[in-house]
Design a protein that fits this description.
single chain; seven-stranded mixed beta sheet; 445 residues; elongated; Leucine-rich repeat, LRR (right-handed beta-alpha superhelix)
Length: 445
């Protein structure tokens, strides 16, 4: 259906009308039944609401305009100025292209009965002070993005907003990886583990800003090999030899390192850590390139690939760095997030990589991160039931893992999990198979 007509007015007693998932470009308010109280227009192509608001039924309590084509120039100011929405209690504007947060808040704050507002999925939703600004501009709100506003949320002073707006940042968390087999013994070389995430929308901007030409994607240049007897069949089922063998090591995979291709590897990487049975990495903050907030918003709608990578490198030659710092040592000025601040390149000996192997890969189907959540977490295990997709979970950060001592008591791995400051109180056993806990969030005030 791509339009409405006056036939709708024949349903004089109709109070709920749902027209989601159609091809509507607009809705004539004069065609709607006069007793209508609930109008849902989710997932259409509406880009202007002028014809809807001018003669709309005056007793609407809910108006759903989520996932349409609305932006800052869609006449949203008419919602309050028309005087036809005096009873509107719930307004859904989620998943549109509204950029200016303060502008939209000023347009709708005069709606006298408004108690619930949804703006999640708009570029303005990425504002670091999104929650504070919304609550202070519309203090009568009870629900924001389907989450009840608490007293604690209201108690935050508006002065905490500061003078400057924070740039939108997407945060990648690796809460921990566990159960990874130790690498082969090699005292002569450095062996580290790190994670890489593929964010094509953001990586493309990084590449173009560096004026690189003929960018090569590693994934498209790897030769396609026929599956061996130990690899999975086309139907996804493992061979009998694979199922019965526990000696296969992920470190035995072919070396992927190519100096020429590595120059164009624009994946976002965590810090490199030596192997441990439980490993936890610093979060990565990823800013919107060139101030393009839409790219972060759209990235949170995609499927992201996560790689667990093993690197074997030759020991760095001893070089003199700045006083108080080892040569090539990266400074972390913020304990909570990984910063990109290091010693000058001339003082850092280049790393000589001897081998690179992607130990494991999996995918995370992302979605918008609610302001009430620090991150959306995903669990993946090296188990046939998981396949290639991570399982969406909640509060993986707060879990605490430990190993059993000789006396049978669980011993928390202090070296790897000491950064966890809010444990659940119960210590869980470390899985015997490879397990990865990651999360994706937005930087909020």
């Amino acid at each position: 259906m791509n339009q409405t007509d006056e036939e709708l007015r024949k349903f004089t007693r109709l109070q709920v009308l749902v027209l989601s998932g159609n091809n509507l470009r607009g809705v004539e308010g004069s065609f709607l039944p006069r007793r209508l109280k609930f109008l849902e227009l989710y997932d259409n192509f509406i880009n202007d609401i002028t014809t809807l608001v001018e003669t709309t039924p005056k007793y609407l309590s809910h108006l759903g305009l989520g996932r349409n084509k609305l932006d800052d120039n869609s006449s949203l100011h008419l919602l309050a100025k028309s005087g036809n929405f005096l009873h509107l209690r719930s307004l859904d504007l989620s998943d549109n292209d509204i950029y200016d947060l303060l502008a939209i808040l000023n347009k709708i704050k005069e709606l006298p009965s408004l108690k619930s507002l949804q703006l999640e999925g708009n570029p303005c939703y990425l504002d670091g002070h999104y929650k504070l600004k919304t609550i202070h501009h519309i203090p009568k709100l009870l629900f924001l993005d389907n989450v009840e506003i608490s007293r604690a949320d209201r108690s935050v002073s508006e002065t905490s907003l500061g003078d400057k707006d924070t740039k939108p940042q997407m945060i990648f968390y690796c809460h921990r990886i566990m159960g990874l087999r130790p690498p082969p013994k090699d005292k002569k070389n450095l062996q580290t583990i790190h994670l890489e995430i593929k964010l094509p929308l953001l990586e493309r901007i990084v590449s173009s800003s560096e004026n690189t030409e003929n960018i090569i994607d590693n994934s498209h240049n790897q030769a396609v090999k026929k599956p061996s007897k130990n690899q999975k069949n086309a139907d996804g089922k493992g061979s009998r030899k694979e199922k019965n063998s526990s000696k296969t090591s992920p470190y035995d995979k072919p070396d992927e390192f190519d100096p020429q291709l590595d120059k164009y590897n624009v994946s976002f990487k965590t810090e490199k850590l030596p192997w441990n049975n439980v490993m936890k990495f610093l979060p990565i903050c990823i800013e919107s390139p060139e101030g393009n907030d839409v790219l972060i918003r759209d990235t949170l709608r995609t499927c992201v690939k996560v790689n667990v990578v093993y690197i074997k490198a030759a020991h760095q030659s001893k070089a003199k760095g700045k006083k108080g710092n080892k040569a090539g040592e990266v400074k972390h000025t913020n304990k909570k997030t990984k910063t990109i601040e290091s010693a000058p390149e001339k003082d850092i000996p280049k790393e000589t990589i001897l081998k690179r192997v992607t130990l494991y890969s999996f995918f995370c189907n992302l979605q918008s991160v609610n302001w009430n959540d620090e991150s959306i977490d995903y669990l993946w295990m090296d188990h046939p039931k998981f396949g290639e997709d991570g399982l969406k979970m909640k509060c993986l950060k707060n879990l605490v893992y430990g190993e059993k001592s000789k006396k049978g008591k669980k011993k928390v791995n202090k070296d790897a999990d000491s950064r966890n400051t809010q444990g659940t109180g119960a210590t869980m056993s470390v899985p015997k198979i490879f397990t990865c806990h990651v999360g994706f969030g937005l930087k909020r005030s």
